[in-house]
Amino acid sequence: MKKTILGLGIFVTGAMVSCKKDNSAGTAGSAAIQQAAVQQRAIAIAASTTTAGDSIYVIHTCGTGDKLSAVDFSALPSTVTDYLGTNYAGYTAVKAFDINNSAGTLNGYIAIIQYNGNPVGIKFDASGNFVEVLEQREGRDLLGSGWHHGGCFDNRDAAHRDTIAISSLPAAIQTYLATNYPQDTLLHAFIKRNGDYIVISTNNGLFATIFTSSGSFITHVPLAAHNGQVVSIDANALPGAVTNYLTATYPGYVFEKAFSYMQNGLVKDYLVIIDSNNTKYGLLFDATGTFIGVKVIR
Do the domain assignments include residue 2? Predict the structure, then answer.
């Protein structure tokens, strides 16, 4: 079977699509998209469309020789749907695929969802266990570095334009936090592309409090519960095991902020906040860099 580049709103017409070869998809810009997918040894699946009209693709969906077969979301294992329901509460199902190797053996699954207005592509193994969050690119960037200035992934240049000073938060947000979480120490704040605010604070643990662009409260997310000193650290202060995990599990991620929990002068845990395709995650690791757990922030 030949590779098909799936356009937004186009359903798979054949039984399977392969990650080996290439043919025409019959869509604008398809030649560049197909060539990029061939070079990356991956099939690119259209997941959404930007306000500028360009398609967003999830990439590196399967290996050379593997085949993707479109399936109904209801056909996914309960381990997959349970994971999505727990970690992406309120998500909307978009597309789902089986991954089979050249011998026809099931290798895993891909689920593409909409979560808080953003597409998320997630890969699972044959048992339905989480493997990784797939990297996304706009169509015009499939052949490049994965982002362009002004594009929806332009935060990948690590300029941290989504960071906002605590003192610059709207008065309604500062008042809400002072009234409802008076013991919290505010550490950092972000403003997402849709205008939502995320405020990171500490009070016997780390928390993310989320507000709408107008300053209305959305939710208060506990990221990690700990007693001890919270210290802001740079990415280069993290154990190598942390960086390796993030690179393998959230390809294309952007480092946002990291903290260490200290007790008696010793590091107990690390919390790392990253942006993966416009969704922020808080990941907890122990002192050796072993992964403990993750919370989807927004």
Answer: no
Distance CA 223, CA 272 (A): 10
User: In this structure, what CATH number is given to the domain that contains residue 292?
Assistant: 3.10.450
The structure's pTM equals: 0.85
- Compute the distance between CA of residue 210 and CA of residue 177 in angstroms, rounded to an integer: 11
> Residue 6 domain-assigned?
no
Residues 162, 284 within the same domain: yes
Q: What is the CA radius of gyration of the chain?
A: 20
The rounded distance, in Å, linking the Cα atoms of 92 and 141 is 26
Q: Which residue range forms the structural domain that includes residue 167? A: 158-298
64 and 133 in a single domain? The answer is yes
Q: Which pair of structure tokens corresponds to residue 29?
A: 């810009």
| 104-126 burial: b if 16+ Cβ within 10 Å, else e | eeeebbbbbbbbbebbbbbbbee
Task: Give pLDDT tens digits along the chain (298 positions).
Answer: 333 233 222 222 223 445 643 333 334 455 555 555 444 434 556 666 665 556 889 998 988 889 999 999 999 999 999 999 999 999 999 999 999 998 999 999 999 999 998 999 999 999 999 999 999 999 888 877 788 888 889 889 888 999 999 999 999 999 999 999 999 999 999 999 889 999 999 998 999 999 999 999 999 999 998 878 999 999 999 999 999 999 999 999 999 999 999 988 899 999 999 999 999 999 999 999 999 999 999 9
Task: Measure the CA–CA gap between 245 and 230, rounded to whole angstroms.
Answer: 22
* In a shared domain, residues 135 and 27: yes
Contacts of 49 (CB under 8 A, 6+ apart): 8, 55, 56
Tell me if residue 248 falls in helix, strand or coil: helix
Sign of the dihedral through C-alpha 62, 67, 71, 75? negative
